[in-house]
Amino acid sequence: MFGKPEWASTTLGVFMCQSCSGLHRNIPHISRVKSVLMDPWETAEVQFMTSNGNTAAKDKYEEKLPEFYYKPTKSDCSVLRDQWIRAKYERCEFMYKERQEPYSTGYREGFLWKRGRDNGQFLSRKFILSEQEGVLKYFNKHEAREPKAIMKIQTLNASFQPQKIDHTNGLQITYLKDNSTRNIFVYHDDGKEMVDWFNAIRAARFHYLQVAYPGTVSQLPKLTRNFIKEGYMEKTGPKHTEGFKRRWFTMDDRRLMYLKDPLDAFARGEVFIGSKENSYSVLPGLPHSVQGNHWQFGITIVTPDRRFLFTCEKETDQKDWIAAFGSVINRPMAPQEYAVEAQFKHKP
């Protein structure tokens, strides 16, 4: 439930917001929806709601919810929210562990539509996720023995990107290769299939983190992560004399990547954003001597080694980016992030 609970399911005994009521209407054989304020209610329905309620429903329908399974929020895309409700109430996946096999066995194999790096066409590709091998891999040809790419679960991330990929079930998978981010864009026409892949990746990440960081349930948020912010900015080079060029920027935790196109397979460059305790800061505006920018709302990122200069088209964009940078800079660095920072400094 993501908003005011002004709607209810008279068959499940739960209250919900308007957004969720629309999703419940997709399963009319399971959930019959009524407005709390506008629809007439029978005495038996009121008594049923009184004797059940959201807490009782959660205890029943989420009794065996896996720790790794992603519970969507109001800001998540429709396929995540729709499949959560279907998994919970229609398929009863969190009442019976045997119904969780598609994403909990440590192995998953299937075909996804993958965007080609060079031509931009989506083609069917075979994917295999193996916890035992510690990798996700895909094959360019169905009968191929050797994978086209091998992605270690250690650096794997998945984020739903329906608008960017222009498909309701679009998923962006990222991983590190030689300390540089690689992007893979996939989708499946079946929403359940795509969400099962997403949670299978989370399960694999969960089990990896249990071994890497034993006894720390606090690692849960790191199973998968959404990008802090994305959008276009202009940038100039290290000498600050080069012309400003429009680039697509992605803020992925402490990695700021810039790409020529949002669907590029890899970034043109990456910047590590540390913490204020380590001499990182963000400032509005540009140095007075800088010229050549088309957009007027500047941002300066100060690092121990140099300054990075960006410009935004609108003042609201500038404020949003400064807030995004500030959220990272104001957060102390974790021990493992110092190792990431050192890798950036030793990049050729």
UniProtKB/TrEMBL annotation:
Cellular component annotations (GO), alphabetically ordered: cytoplasm; plasma membrane
Organism from which the protein derives: Denticeps clupeoides
Statement: the UniProt record of this protein carries the keyword Cytoplasm: yes
Chief place where the protein resides: cytoplasm
Annotated localization: Cytoplasm
A family per Pfam: ArfGap
Protein name according to UniProt: Arf-GAP with dual PH domain-containing protein 1-like
Organism domain of life: Eukaryota
Gene designation: ADAP1
Signal peptide residue numbers: none
SMART domains (UniProt xref): ArfGap (SM00105), PH (SM00233)
This protein's record includes keyword Zinc: yes
The PH domain, residue ranges: 105-206, 226-330
Assigned keywords, A-Z: Cytoplasm, GTPase activation, Metal-binding, Repeat, Zinc, Zinc-finger
Domain (Arf-GAP): residue spans on this chain: 1-102
InterPro entries: Arf-GAP_dual-PH_domain (IPR052589), ARFGAP/RecO (IPR037278), ArfGAP_dom (IPR001164), ArfGAP_dom_sf (IPR038508), PH-like_dom_sf (IPR011993), PH1_ADAP (IPR037849), PH2_ADAP (IPR037851), PH_domain (IPR001849)
Gene Ontology molecular functions: GTPase activator activity; phosphatidylinositol bisphosphate binding; phosphatidylinositol-3,4,5-trisphosphate binding; zinc ion binding
